[in-house]
């Protein structure tokens, strides 16, 4: 298998951290692409990922997968232990619920803030809409507060154990620094959780 990865980008990092938590990082070949240099938009890479998305995983039979969650679903099936997506219907639902909450209510809000207000994103987000970014900033910070409250009573996000939902949140907390925001320093419970998640990823 071959994984196309972009350093520091949160979705590619999600797959790498997932593999690391599985203890299978050496099971795939990794090729780095620079999103800022727009290497993901070359004709050669569009043959791998028609929508210019990173990460992308090429299977041994030539099948091409994009979307970090879909790639992780495949890897969960190939490398079932340790289980990171739920061992029964209830766990699977709880983990997916929290993973989606982090994706849609936190990560997506942050991405809108970042893409519409950060100067480095101007060449990629045309046109930038600062008003949309400001609104999304408020949404992201409100959701971080709600997650912090949840983690006051839970060691991990879902099902009482470490899962892909925690990996998604972990990648987010690292990436948030691009906007000079560190939720794990601002919120006590997220800070304590991040140390537990870091240890679980390995």
Number of helices: 8
Q: Could you tell me the strand content as a percent range?
A: 5-15%
Q: Work out the number of β strands.
A: 4
Terminal CA distance reads 22 Å
Percent helix among the residues? 40-55%
Taken from the alpha-carbon principal axes, the silhouette is globular
Quickly give the structural class: alpha+beta
Largest sheet features: 4 strands, mixed
Structural summary, described in words:
- There is one protein chain.
- This protein has 202 residues and is an alpha+beta fold.
- Helices cover 55% and strands 7% of the residues.
- It is built from eight helices and four strands.
- The chain has a four-stranded mixed β-sheet, covered by helices on one side.
- β3 and β4 form a beta hairpin.
- α1 (10-22) runs parallel beside α3 (68-78) and α5 crosses α8 (188-201).
- The longest helix is centred in the middle third of the chain and has 29 residues, at 89-117.
- The two termini are 22 Å apart.
- The mean pLDDT is 97.
